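Table S2 (continued). Query chain:
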Amino acid sequence: MKAFNIDRQDRAILDILQRDGRLAWTALAERVRLSPTACQRRVRLLEEAGVIRGYRADVDLAALGFGVEAFVAVRVERQSPELAAQFREAVTNFDTVQSCHLLSGDTDFLLRVVAADLASFSQFIQRELLTLPGIKDASSLIVLETVKDQSPVPALTR
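Corresponding output:
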């Protein structure tokens, strides 16, 4: 994927929208010192280029009863692309899996999983994840505290 070049004004727009995606065009334009029309045009270009993927509510999963968050490192049988494809399909259907990343190195996939409690998490691992065909190994890391959880645009280095 080709990188989309952004300037300081685009960066300012992204920084503000990441903090408040519901901000009115006029307020956003005022904060970045553009006309509302020019600001809206820049946002639309960022959306069309895929830089802005969408707008979401930032939900506190613990407030909804998901008291356990964990990262699960999974290794699958590498000799079977079919089993890896089945694994990919299966994890997309698990509601408890919040994200799944294909990795390089000894771990094939890293999952971020949420559950109501340790018993529910254990049940997910034993009855759902480890029963998938092709799983060689899975190890869990329970999150004790989240120190930082945000995705601001990194500083412009170009």
